[in-house]
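User: Hello! I'm new to structural biology and keep hearing that structure can be predicted from sequence alone. Could you demonstrate with SdpI/YhfL protein family protein? Please show me the input and the output so I can see what each looks like.

Assistant: Of course. The first part below is the input, the amino acid sequence of SdpI/YhfL protein family protein. The second part is the output, the predicted structure written as tokens.
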Amino acid sequence: MNTSFLILFFVVGGLLIGLSLPLIYGKVPPNLWYGFRVRRTLDDPSIWYPANAYAGWQILWVGVVGMVVAVATYLIPNVELGVYASIVGVTYGVGVVVMLVRSFVYLGKLPK
């Protein structure tokens, strides 16, 4: 199998992890470009930081799970490239959807 897809999916996971860390550690102030940007988080810094820390953890886990699936699936003997790319792509896609749903649920639990 072509290792360039493994490298690509590993880089995607690494980027997600790298982007998550400043959010987790509260290093990103409210802004229009980076973070969990919805009206409620942008309007109130006391909501922005916990909501983004939570979303950051979710992003981190999407990156880690995507990388693990990319490596594990790559190691399956005779897996076809299209199947490999589909499995890892769906893993990242579902991970992002789950991350968004969980982040919105968490946001709904924060005091108003």
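User: So the tokens describe the shape?

Assistant: Right, they're a compact way of writing down the 3D structure. Reading them back into a model, for example: Residues 3-109 form one domain.
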